[in-house]
Design goal:
397 residues; alpha/beta; Alpha-Beta Plaits; 16 strands
Length: 397
C-alpha cells in the first residue's frame, strides 16, 4: 500500500489492539492508529479526523457495537467498521442485524490472513462508494450551477426563491429579487471574442458575490443576465442599499487582455409581497424594472412600480408597417398595425396584455391579436366599428 492507513481501534485491552496492528503491518500496510475504549473517547476521535477503518471488539465493556455504529453516523463520518469477535457469528440473528445496520464484516482476532483479506476488500468497496458519491455530487452540481461562473443557475435560483417565499409567508417578512444586466457587455464580445467575454462574466460574478450576505444568492440566468435573492429582508430600503453596492462594485472598469472596459450594471428590483406573489412574477417584474433602469441611462437601479409595464412597452414599441385587414371575403375591415416590442414576449396572455396596453395608448380599436412565434412583434387589426377582442390568436408559443 502506497499511503498511510488510518485505523481507529475500539478495544478494551492495549495488547489486543497491538496484535491487530501487527497483523496489518505483516500484510504490508503502513498504519497510523489509535485505541479508544469509551463512548466519549470514540466520538472525540471520530470528530478529529476521517478514519479509513474502524476495528471494533465485539465484547466492549462500556458500550455495544450497535452504539458504535450510531456514533459514527452521528459524527457524519463514513468510516467502515469491522467487528473483531471470538466467533465469526456469535449470534446469527444479531450478526445479521449488525450487518444490516452497517457493519462491514466479522473476523476472528487471531486470523491474520482473513483480516487482511477483509480489510483489503473493505477498503476497495469504500473507495468505490466514495467515487460514486463524488460522481453523483458532480452530476448534481452540474444540474444546479452555472458551468462558467459556478453560480447557481436558473433552476436552483427558482428553487431557493420559492423556499424564501414560503418562509416570508410564514414569518411575515420580505424577500427581494434583483435582475441585473451588464451594460455594453456586447462590446467586449465583439472586440475581443467570447473567451474574453467569459473572463469578464467570471469577474462580474465575483463582484456580485462580494456585495452579498452569506444567506443571499447570486445566480447567472444566462448570457450577461444575473439575478439576486435577498431572503428575510426587513424592509425595501435594504434592497436599494444592496443595489447601490452593486453599482459601486461595477464602477471600476474591467481589464481584459490589457484593455479597459467600462462595463457597468443596470439593476431592477422587485419586493415580495407587494411586487408579486410568486417566484416567476417577481423575477419578471424585476426584469421590467431593469429595462427601465437601462432606458433612464444605464448604470443605475430602478424599483418596480405598477406602471412600469405600460411605460416600458410604450417607450420601447415602434410601428413597423401597416396593411389592409382582409376578412377572407374580400372585404377590407380596417388596418393591420404591426408593433415591434421592446423585448420578446412568449406567453400568449402577456402578448394579449401588451397589445391591449399599447393599442389603447395609441388610440387603436383592437379586434384581433396576431402573435408570431418569436413574440418580438405583434400585429393587431384596427377596426373602429368592432368591439375589442383581447384573446390572442393561436400560433404563439
Amino acid at each position: 500500500m502506497d499511503r498511510v492507513l488510518y485505523v481507529l481501534i475500539l478495544e478494551d485491552e492495549q495488547a489486543a489492539a497491538e496484535r491487530l496492528i501487527s497483523h496489518l503491518h505483516w500484510g504490508g500496510f503502513d498504519v497510523s492508529w489509535s485505541r479508544v475504549d469509551s463512548r466519549r473517547s470514540f466520538f472525540n476521535a471520530l470528530t478529529e479526523r476521517e478514519w479509513d477503518l474502524v476495528l471494533c471488539d465485539h465484547d466492549l465493556s462500556q458500550f455495544t457495537v450497535a452504539e458504535a455504529l450510531g456514533l459514527i453516523k452521528e459524527s457524519g463520518r463514513e468510516s467502515p467498521l469491522i467487528v473483531i469477535s471470538e466467533a465469526i457469528s456469535p449470534d446469527v440473528e444479531k450478526a445479521a442485524s449488525l450487518l444490516k445496520s452497517g457493519v462491514s464484516n466479522f473476523v476472528l482476532p487471531d486470523d491474520p490472513a482473513r483480516l487482511l483479506a477483509i480489510v483489503d476488500h473493505t477498503l476497495k468497496e469504500q473507495e468505490s462508494r466514495l467515487k460514486q458519491s463524488e460522481k453523483s455530487a458532480e452530476i448534481q452540481r452540474l444540474a444546479s450551477f452555472d458551468a462558467l461562473t459556478d453560480l447557481p443557475n436558473r433552476t436552483l435560483f427558482f428553487d431557493r426563491l420559492s423556499q424564501a417565499l414560503k418562509r416570508s409567508r410564514r414569518v411575515g417578512d420580505k424577500a427581494v429579487v434583483q435582475f441585473i444586466d451588464l451594460d455594453r457587455f456586447k462590446e467586449v464580445n465583439d472586440s475581443l471574442g467570447h473567451a474574453a467575454g467569459d473572463c469578464l462574466l467570471k469577474e462580474a460574478a465575483l463582484r456580485l458575490q462580494a456585495c452579498l450576505r452569506e444567506s443571499d444568492t447570486a445566480a447567472r440566468l444566462g448570457g450577461d443576465e444575473f439575478a439576486i435573492l435577498l431572503p428575510g429582508t426587513e424592509d425595501a430600503e435594504t434592497a436599494e442599499i444592496v443595489a447601490e453596492k452593486i453599482i459601486e462594485a461595477f464602477a471600476e472598469p474591467f481589464v481584459i487582455k490589457g484593455q479597459s472596459f467600462p462595463v457597468t450594471a443596470s439593476v431592477g428590483i422587485a419586493v415580495f409581497p407587494g411586487d408579486g406573489e410568486d417566484a416567476e412574477t417577481l423575477l419578471d417584474n424585476a426584469d421590467t424594472a431593469m429595462y427601465q433602469a437601462k432606458r433612464l441611462g444605464r448604470n443605475r437601479f430602478k424599483r418596480y412600480t405598477e406602471g412600469a409595464v405600460k411605460d416600458e412597452m410604450l417607450a420601447n414599441t415602434t410601428i413597423s408597417d401597416t396593411e389592409p385587414a382582409d376578412t377572407g371575403s374580400g372585404q377590407n375591415r380596417g388596418t393591420v398595425v404591426r408593433l415591434n416590442l421592446f423585448r420578446p414576449l412568449k406567453d400568449k396572455l402577456a402578448v394579449g396584455l401588451a397589445a391591449a396596453i399599447i393599442g389603447i395608448a395609441l388610440g387603436l380599436s383592437l379586434s384581433t391579436v396576431l402573435t408570431p412565434e418569436n413574440g418580438s412583434q405583434i400585429a393587431i387589426e384596427e377596426d373602429m366599428e368592432s368591439l375589442p377582442n383581447m384573446a390572442p390568436a393561436a400560433g404563439g408559443d
